[in-house]
Amino acid sequence: MPRCKVNGGFVYVTNYSYRFRELIQSIAEKAEKSLPSKRLKGIGIFLFGSPSRQEMIDESDADVMILRDKDSEDYNLFRSEFMALLEKEKFSKIDVPDWGTFEECEAYIKHSITEGNQIVESKFVYGDPSVNEYINNLRDQYCTIDRFEKVFCFQKLYFDQYYRQRSRQGIKNVKYGHGGTRDFMFITWFINILDSLDHRKINIEDNFPMVHKSLSSLYERRLINFQDYMKYLESINVVLVLRNDILIQNRWTTEEGLTYLDDRTLEILFRRDIFKNESIQDVPSLKKYLERNLENVFELKIRVWHLFLDHLSSYKGTEWANNFRNFLDGKINQEEINKIQDEDELSQMVIIWNIDYNKNPELFSQIFQKYKESKSWPVLASICCHAACPPEVLDYIAINIGCSKGYEYLLRIISRNKQVPKETLKKIIDNPNLEYRYKIVAKTAYEIGVEKANELR
Fold first, then answer.
1. Which of 116, 261, 420, 448 meets the CB 3.0–4.6 Å disulfide criterion with 109?
2. Distance from first CA to last CA of the chain, Å, rounded?
3. Domain boundaries of the chain, sorted by first residue
4. In sequence order, which ranges of 205-278 are alpha helices (DSSP H)?
5. More confident residue, 214 or 1
6. What is the DSSP string of 30-98?
7. Closest CA to 370 of 399, 390, 398, 385
């Protein structure tokens, strides 16, 4: 299949995602036959992550959810058979959460950005249609402008910080770095806001990459011109292929699962002659070509961020937006904090991310003590991400809130913070009620170190 021509990467991920969907349907059909009734009732199979966004590559995780009205013997039997069949396919990582009852789904979409997004973006592929109907009803209830604004804002602040944790001096990270594949999602998250304003539902029914549809929506809304549309389209295409090829060449090495564009990687990419462009004559010119495409994707994300700020100005008013921008710039004082409403989670988030302990330790302490009692997932997650978050605050959130249904992902964030006490990590590890996915980062940080924990996928 031709690659690295306009739309080549898009065709590749579309076809791969289609084949994965067919595989999951086939596995689910076989597993269904293991049930006494030979029929799934109250159980549905959904894709999430890159498979549901139609952006799957060879090395993508096999992201699947088994959602159901309740836990049952049929569910346990089906899951056991389904997992046994899926594991035979030798994916680099299989991610099938244990959670998935209707009650759990509502808790996650109500509280969590991470698992909530998995539900919002999930794609029904097999099983009882009534489960899909229930998920669609959850979307109708919780997919609001307010939610999409919080998602976009938190993820921008979170990934800016997370990229720093996943960086190597002077080396681009093609997944977890500025201009990498994670940045594709910001386009979709912003389009979700605009679609919500226009009373449109998220389009998860067709089978073309979400990032392509979202970029096209920016152009159709005249938010970018045709020349920029084509430039960004080609750069996204290049980055899609680049990430996949780096992951393939890192198989079975110490760099497996990582996507750094270092000298060794560039040498191999050049020898393999993956990228066809007249400007590429040697390794330095290949590096320049690839970094330019990464910079184009980063430029697009920044443009979308400024469009988001413009949206806030028109939707929430100039005075509110000016205060918000001041908070982003670190201009934070007691008087303005006192004016913030309890429901204004966007302002609370940016204050937490941008307050400087060294400039005003007293105000810093006051903010963290106040907001550690919040019930807002993005506010609590913002606290847990802060590099200067007091260890006792991390411990308080982990033990008093992080173990509650809908908030468990906070434990993964806490476990990546260099301020986290080892005693807190041990409490997370020893909690018998937590799913393993919420313990693995704590276990890695406790046994090997936070740096290694930050490399986990």
1. 116
2. 29
3. 8-142, 144-316
4. 210-220, 226-249, 263-272
5. 214
6. HHHTTSTTSS-SSEEEEE-STTTTT---TTS-EEEEEEESS--HHHHHHHHHHHHHHHTT--S-EE--S
7. 390
In the chain, how long is the greatest CA-to-CA distance? Answer: 66
Instruction: Return d(Cα 50, Cα 48) in angstroms, integer.
Output: 7
Burial (0-12, 13-18, 19+ Cβ within 10 Å), 95? middle
List, in sequence order, the alpha helices (H) in 317-439.
318-328, 334-339, 345-354, 361-371, 377-385, 391-400, 409-416, 422-430
CA atoms within 13 A on the CB side of 302: 8
- DSSP-assigned letter for residue 171: B
> CA nearest 302: which of 168, 183, 389?
183
Query: CB–CB of 401/111 below 8 Å?
Result: no
Q: Is 242 exposed, middle or buried (0-12, 13-18, 19+ CB in 10 A)?
A: buried
pLDDT digits (tens, 9 = 90+) for 80-130: 999 999 999 988 889 999 999 999 999 999 999 999 999 999 999 999 999
Sign of CA dihedral 39, 44, 45, 51: positive
Q: Do domains 8-142 and 144-316 have the same CATH topology?
A: no
- At which residue do the structure tokens 């907001």 appear? 371
Mention every residue, 6+ apart, whose C-beta is less than 8 A from residue 361.
none
pTM for the whole thing? Answer: 0.92
Q: What CATH class does 144-316 carry?
A: mainly alpha
Q: Tell me which architecture the domain covering 8-142 has in CATH.
A: 2-Layer Sandwich (3.30)
Q: How far apart are CA 440 and CA 438, in angstroms?
A: 6
SS3 call for 112: coil
Q: How deeply is 284 buried, as exposed, middle or buried, from its count of CB atoms within 10 A (0-12, 13-18, 19+)?
A: exposed
pLDDT the model gives residue 1:
27
Gap between the Cα atoms of 36 and 134, Å rounded = 25
Residue 78: count other Cβ atoms within 10 Å of its Cβ. Answer: 23
Residue 13 CA to residue 241 CA, distance in Å, equals 9
